[in-house]
Amino acid sequence: MNKKRFIAAFVLLFAVLSCAYGSQEAVAAYPIPLGDYPRTAGNSLWAELWERVKFAPFNVFATVIFFCAILHTFSVGFFHRLSEKLELEHEEKLRIMLAYGAKFPKGENPVSFPAKLCGYLGEVEAVFGIWLIPLFIGFCICYGWRDFTAYIDNLAFEQQKFTEPMFVVVVMCIAATKPVINVAGKLIHMFARLGNSTPAAWWISIFFIGPVLGSFITEPAAITICAMLLFREFYELKPSTSFKYATLALLLTTVSAGGTLTHFAAPPVLMVAKIWDWDTAFMFEHFGWKAWLGIVASTMFYYFIFRAEFARLKEDSKLHKRRGDYSEKIPLWVIVVHILFLVFTVSTLHHPALFIFAFLFFLAFASSTRQYQYGVNVKTPILVGFFLAGLVVHGSLQAWWIEPVLGRFSELSLFIGAIVLTSFNDNAAITYLASMVPSFSEHLKYIVVAGAVTGGGLTVIANAPNPAALSILKRYYKGGISPMQLFLSAIPPTAIIALAFYFL
User: Fold this and answer.
1) Which residues lie below 8 Å from residue 34, measured CB to CB, with a gap of 6+?
2) What's the pLDDT score for residue 496?
3) Burial, 186: exposed, middle or buried (Cβ in 10 Å; 0-12, 13-18, 19+)?
4) 288 C-beta neighbours (distance < 10 Å), count
5) Which residues contact 127 (CB under 8 A, 6 or more apart)?
6) Which residue has the higher pLDDT, 376 or 180?
7) If we measure between CA atoms, which residue out of 431, 358, 10, 449 comes closest to residue 167?
8) Per-residue pLDDT tens for 368-377?
9) What pLDDT, on a 0 to 100 scale, did the predictor assign at position 21?
10) For residue 269, what is the enclosing H or E element?
């Protein structure tokens, strides 16, 4: 990392830290606390929702904007293709102009603003941030600037909802470094050797081991490591499009389920563990072993589906120059320092002042040991953090309809409903809202959490770490990643893990 990048990262993180720890005593008029809505005992769901709309009409506007953002995520491929088309037309126009002797200021060719605009609209990480603009304008019109800033400040200071986006930025940067990937690669390679280190052996080993790491080093770190290893050992062999989507869907689904072996790593579990008095022993007894069996079963399901293609990839791998050379010598002290930074970041998850402070030292250390680094990539993690921060702002305004919906489900409908609702909101938000429903029995608490983690791979917004994997692997999807193909590919592993959680 050069000095300019380091200074830019320092200034950016200092600004984020300053925003996260200010002082604000104002109380926003919106969103309405759930306990302040009129009591509608005995009314139908639609009647209760209608009463809440009459009590706070802005609910409709906020939810419409939220669903527009969701629809936008399904159309990023269109904008990406349109951007490429406009860029080609612009380049052809420039070629003609230069042929006729056109001169431009400072010798720099002009860029196409429409092409760049469509390019931004085609970036899935930017979607929820873009749709914050009309949301903010509407908020200011309805409630005024003071209430708008009080709402944002409340998210940052009181609820600390921006802690997770900041944490994901930091942990992605550390987990994607050469020493960490090297250690993870060696660990998984030990298992891949049992299958002669073929593409199939690597693929299976990554999915058997990688998602479970989410229960110990957090899901963002686990999904980053898995995506980097898949990038090296699988995607470089150019599998078919259907196989690439199946692999990505399996990664998102298994990482969501793999974080349930402990009570301190996965966000949807963290939201309820303290409230419901769940510890690691409880999580492993009721969730962990079922999750791992579901991961194994769903992995083997897709292995048998694509076993013929694995045979082709095995032959191609003999001619392919392997990117994953885990025999490279990296000094032990460098590896230890990286692991310590990762452990410290995970252990200070709820204290952004500490993990950002340590991250600044990590950037300096990485720069000082650049001969053992890939180069710290801050652009991709920052985009992912931007995506998650936008989702936090939108999602925090959806409790008005999600909470009464959850409270009216029976056991099976609650399980299916939690899976479906997770597709439209982060699964941590679903479990958080479930913790506010007083009528849930112990079994229904299990059901709603199981459903939330099961549906974490259906969409990019279903689980907070998902954008991290998409950012690393999207280069292999021509025209961008199709949300519909991802959704369809995620149905089989989601169904298998659902059966494991519901019937075992």
Assistant:
1) 399, 400, 403, 436
2) 97
3) exposed
4) 21
5) 69, 72, 73, 76, 387, 390
6) 180
7) 358
8) 998 888 877 7
9) 47
10) helix 267-276
Number of H helices, E strands in the chain: 26, 0
Q: At what angle do helices 199-209 and 219-233 cross, to 10 degrees?
A: 180
Burial 121-160 (b: 16+ CB within 10 A, else e): bbbbbbbbbebbeebbebbeebbeeebbebbbbbbbbeee
Provide the 8-state DSSP code for 482: -
Is residue 178 within 8 Å of 229, Cβ to Cβ? no
107 in the Ramachandran plot: left (φ > 0), alpha (ψ -120 to 50) or beta?
A: left
C-alpha pair distances (Å), 104 with each of 93, 107, 113: 14, 5, 16
- For 439, the 3-state DSSP assignment is coil
Alpha-carbon distance of 223 to 381, in angstroms, equals 13
Q: Give this prediction's pTM.
A: 0.79
What does each C-alpha distance from 29 to 21, 145, 217 come to in angstroms?
22, 11, 38
CA atoms of 271 and 399, how far apart (whole Å): 15
CA 203 to mean position of chain CA atoms: 21
Tokens of 240: 């078919």
Report the distance separating Cα 259 and Cα 261, nearest Å: 6
Distance CA 356, CA 433 (A): 29
**Other CB atoms within 10 Å distance of the CB of residue 267:** 25
Q: At what angle do helices 178-192 and 219-233 cross, to 10 degrees?
A: 70
CA distances from residue 343 to 218, 339, 358, 381 in whole angstroms, order as listed: 10, 6, 11, 18
Question: Mind giving me the DSSP string for 91-125?
Answer: HHHHHHHHHTT---GGGPPPP-HHHHHHHHHT-GG
